[in-house]
Amino acid sequence: MQLILHTFKLKLKHTFTITHESRNVQPTLIVELREGNFRGFGEATETPYYGVTLEKMKAQLEAVRPLIEKYDLKNPEDFWQYISPYLQDDHPFALCALDIAANDLWGKKSGKKLYEAWGLDISKNPITDYTIGIDTVEKMVEKIKEVPFPLYKIKLGTKEDIKIVKELRKHTNAVFRVDANTAWDVEETIQNAVQLKELGVEFIEQPMKADNWEGMKKVYAESVLPIIADESCIVEDDVARCYGFFHGVNVKLMKCGGLTPAKRMIAHAHKVGLKVMVGCMTESNVGCSAIAQLLPLLDYVDMDGILLVEDHISTGITIDYGKVIYAAENGTGANLIG
Ligand SMILES: [Mg+2]
After folding, report:
1. 20 to 30 Å CA-CA from 131: which of 81, 151, 174, 191?
2. According to the annotation, is 230 in a ligand binding site?
3. Residue 304 marked ligand-binding
4. Catalytic machinery residues
5. Among candidates 174, 222, 183, 220, which has minimal Cα distance to 201?
């Protein structure tokens, strides 16, 4: 396989603010694996919060270029086992981009979309939410009016979280889910859950600090809304740790190292009765089209990345009022434009 690295700066439609940071542009790395006329694409984004930069990811991949280029891809799982020991990192974003590219290439070579190759039925796919970042209440209302959607994920973690949700509720009947990105404490979470449930919120994502397991135990027992782990569930081993502390987990491809480990995490979570969501990280259509292949396995999905960026660097899925429509192309359906 030939390895080709591309970098882009995705321009965001709105300044995106969550508890950790605020930004206008999303730098991203697209990994291409080429074999004959087949081209597979994968993606990982620069994420300063985790110390992940384009330069770092490129250096990691350049270091394993000879191992990749001498490899004959038979299936993505074997490739992941082969290459992952060399790309282990607290935040295996480069491994993720490479694994998605390998899956995409394998699907295209097999003449199948990935979900078909995995034997999945897409008839009951969950719809995706549309994320409303933290802003003034007026701007958040504006965004809801600008993008009518059946399901919104509202980023919280301000001094007036309940007020925000009450105000947004006046403007839509859509289902809400909220993400506090670790901003609340135990009592706040338990009390907020009561009010949020009345406001039509279906679950709360990561209300408290990632390592507050003691607090989560209490919240798990007392919250009237399901609690989904995000910052507390990063890699495969975390799924087992979340059992009995959360009602579900949010799996992210970049945090766990790609589609291959994500599929294992989803299977493990369902086996122990945890709900599963997959979340995006403001990817282009390369990353979102990879997430889409997992839809039949998911209870919830947050993959509105392509609706939040201006740049359209790739073909792939489209989203129609929350419903994900697959591309005609095999693999993930993504191809770089130009
Ligand atoms: Mg989150």
Report:
1. 191
2. yes
3. no
4. 155, 252
5. 174
